[in-house]
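Bench notes, afternoon.
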Amino acid sequence: MSDVTRLETLVDLRDDDSDAGRMSLSALLEAVLVDGSRVVLLNGRGWVEKLTGGKSGDTPIIWKLTSIREIEQTARSVIGPDEPFGGQSRCDVELAYWVSLTEVLRRQGILADARELAQLPHTVVLDEHLLARL
C-alpha cells in the first residue's frame, strides 16, 4: 500500500453560535501517514443541527440533546461516500469516491490504492471546544 495508515475526520464548531436551537459543525477528512504527517483529503464539509426549543439552565437544549455518537455518525455520512444518484450503483459511487481521494494523495506525491484506502481504519475526532460544549 502507501504510507497512509489511517483516515481521520476532524469535527469542529463552524461558529460559536449560542442559539439554543442551532449547532453548526464542520468536518475535515485527513489521511494520516506513517510518519505522523497529515494530508487533507476533503474540507469544506459540514452540517447544521436544528432544534426548536429554548435553554435548559445555562446550556442550550441542542447541546444537551445531541450525543457524541450522533455527531460521529453524521460526520461519517457528511464525509462520504455519497448516496448513488443518476442511475449509478452504490459500488460505482463508492469506487469513484475512493479513486478521487487517491487522486488527492497522488497530487501530494503519495501513491495509494482506492480499494486498500477504503479498508483503512477511520476515526472521528471531535475538537476540544466541541467536546466542552457537549
